[in-house]
Amino acid sequence: MTLTLAFRNLFHDRIRLAVTLVGILFSIVLVAVQLGLYLGARNMITSMIDRADADLWIMAYGTKNFEEAQPINLREKFTALSTPGVASAVPLVTSFTEWRKPQGGSTLVLLIGADAEDGGLSPWNVVEGHVSSLGARDAVIADKSYLSDLGVKGVGDTAQIGAARVRVTALTDGIRSFTVTPYVFTTLNRARSLLDMAPDSATYVLVKLAPGANLEAVRDAIRRKSTDTDVLSKAEFRDRSLNHWLFATGAGIALIGGAILGLVVGTVIVAQTLYSSTKDHLNEFATLRALGSSAGYIHKVILAQAGLSAVLGYALGMAIALTVVELSENTALPIVMTPALATLLLALTVGMCAISALSAIGKVMRIDPAMVFNR
Amino acid sequence: MSADATTGTIAAEQGAAPAAPRVVLEARNIVKVLGEGARRVQALRGVSLTLNAGELTLLMGPSGSGKTTLLSILGCILTPTEGTLTVAGRPTAGLSPEELADLRRRNIGFIFQSYNLFPTLTAEQNVRVALDLRGERGSDAIVRAQRALQRVGLGHRLKSYPSNLSGGEQQRVAVARALVGSPSLMLADEPTAALDSENGIAVMQLLAEIAKDARRAVLAVTHDPRTIPFANRVLRIEDGLIVGEERRTEGVETVHQLARNRKRKANA
């Protein structure tokens, strides 16, 4: 009966129900978009680090993120290789450079140079052409979502990096950059050449440990030998990059702040509508109290009202949020929806509605049941 | 029984009856002070009474005499400022609001002047609420609610909403709701005030019949003199004191006859 009472109370006033649902829906969509953007940003920030086959990263001292690193000397590779527990050490070159479009104009790209056969970092999600095409002269691989930014139409088109000609030989899908600067993959030596880097330099050395080697011990050993560099585990480098882009720049705080704002607005709207709905049904709650209902029974009715609002609002809100996620798929900053985020949103919605119910419960608990005799 | 007009006390007089009636409610020297400071009012000034099983008692008095306050206290909704109250053998002194709610739920059925039905629930659901509060659910509860409605003559209106019922029918749903939990005490607040003569009589007949149950006492607060013929006992309250008691010797059957006569007259 608690559920029936809650359901009937809720649907008794359709306009108020609509206002409640719009409040929850607005809140869900706002939180889903903000947290989805946050997750999308996290994925983009760490995608290169996650994809690289490396247990340890050696980089210039003070490097804050994957994109903005200074070159280091290739001797770091040999320092690493001479450390017990290291199975391989592979150089990786990255740097921002100018991409000149065939029809004129230019854009900034992040050139990534690595040799696929070394097993360091290769393009993934190749949807047209092959990674092996990088062996061809002037070959580069770009992501199809950046084709218009790069001023090319697809595989076979040419452009220029600096003074050198490059040709798109394959396309990836979904390798997007948090900085909105397109990633362009090529071989290690071609990247050095295009970036005018010395042959004995690299941006990173990717270290793979031998089976059974202790990560901390190997890392500390390399650190002792290579004092001018940072030696970070994959997790440490992820955290450092995330910390820089999301928190040092304030981007993540803005996204999380937006999500919190959504929750606050949703809570206020739901609280207001639940409170006024409860006020309208005050005589009924007083009757329940007079008939001997326990406080728990009345709490259940109000919480069931809040719960029903939450479930309905969540269903509608998620339908809209998923549409927004779908629409954002091919944009520079796609919104990510994961089962974990969907579950979190449901928990947040239920929590929001439960908190909203508190004011209504407080109101009902202050009822004097004797008012039933005064009507 | 006798009434002491000075103190407003009614002493239970068991007399020489072979079997003493079971006392369902006993109130002793109930005082109730409402408001504070300049607004302080002594609504009840030492009321004592007993309600016996198998009796329909009317509590009559003018507006402001303390009828509703007394009903609220006897129903364990308000607590007395002074005095003691025992309901179904359980003293109420020192009970917490939740314990008082439990006492109401298990022992008292309420009938309100404005019926106080849930407008969004059907007649059957309205009755079932009283069982639900006691944790009685499922098909048994549905059957019991339906039987209670059949008993008040509304077996054909189970699925009707209050807005589709007449005032008399709504009050009968309220009676069924009060009755369904088989309480030992039923308290009715002006049960006929919102009803026309015919429906008022029908409801009073119902209450008189319910009061025949030797396990149950019924108290109705009223200022409607049409209800007197249905009562076994009439208590009069003025200025917060019980000032008189009338024990009626007429049987309820006579009263029914009286009602039928009145109806015949009206039809003629």
Question: Topology, please?
Answer:
The complex is a heterodimer of chains A (375) and B (268).
Chain A: H1 2-12, H2 14-51, E1 56-60, E2 72-73, H3 75-81, E3 86-100, E4 106-113, E5 126-128, E6 139-143, H4 147-150, E7 158-161, E8 164-172, E9 183-186, H5 188-194, E10 201-202, E11 204-209, H6 215-225, E12 229-233, H7 234-248, H8 251-280, H9 282-290, H10 295-327, H11 339-365
Parallel strand pairs in A: 4-9, 6-8
Antiparallel strand pairs in A: 1-11, 1-12, 2-10, 3-4, 3-7, 3-11, 5-8, 6-9, 7-8
Helix pairs in contact in A: 1-10, 2-7, 2-8, 2-10, 2-11, 8-11, 10-11
Chain B: E1 2-4, E2 9-11, E3 23-34, E4 41-52, E5 56-60, H1 67-74, E6 82-87, E7 90-91, H2 97-107, E8 108-111, H3 123-133, H4 139-151, H5 167-179, E9 185-189, H6 197-210, E10 217-222, E11 233-238, E12 241-247, H7 252-267
Parallel strand pairs in B: 5-10, 5-11, 8-9, 9-10
Antiparallel strand pairs in B: 1-2, 3-4, 3-6, 6-7, 11-12
Helix pairs in contact in B: 3-4, 3-5, 4-5, 5-6, 6-7
Radius of gyration of chain B: 18 Å
Number of helices of chain B: 7
Number of domains of chain B: 1
- In total, how many beta strands of chain B? 12
Average pLDDT reading of chain B? 85
Question: What structural class do the secondary elements of chain B suggest?
Answer: alpha/beta
The amount of beta strand of chain B, in percent, is: 25-35%
What share of residues of chain A is helical? 40-55%
Overall average pLDDT of chain A: 88
Q: Give the domain tally of chain A.
A: 2
Structure explained in plain terms:
With about 375 residues, chain A is an alpha+beta fold. Chain A folds into two domains: about 1-45 and about 250-375, no CATH class; about 60-225, no CATH class. Chain A has eleven helices and twelve strands. In chain A, strands 3-4-9-6-8-7 form a six-stranded mixed barrel. In chain A, a hairpin with a 5-residue loop joins strand 3 (about 85-100) and strand 4. In chain A, helix 2 packs antiparallel against helix 11. Chain A starts with a helix and ends in a 10-residue tail after the last helix. The mean pLDDT of chain A is about 90. By secondary structure, chain B is an alpha/beta fold. Chain B has one domain: 3-Layer(aba) Sandwich (Rossmann fold). Chain B contains seven helices and twelve strands. In chain B, the strands form three sheets. Chain B has a six-stranded mixed sheet with strand order 8-9-10-5-11-12. In chain B, strands 4-3-6-7 form a four-stranded antiparallel sheet, with helices on one face. In chain B, strands 1-2 form a two-stranded antiparallel sheet. In chain B, strand 9, helix 6 (about 195-210) and strand 10 (about 215-220) form a beta-alpha-beta unit. Chain B is globular. The chains are: A alpha+beta (about 375), B alpha/beta (about 270). The interface between A and B is medium-sized, with 26 and 34 residues.
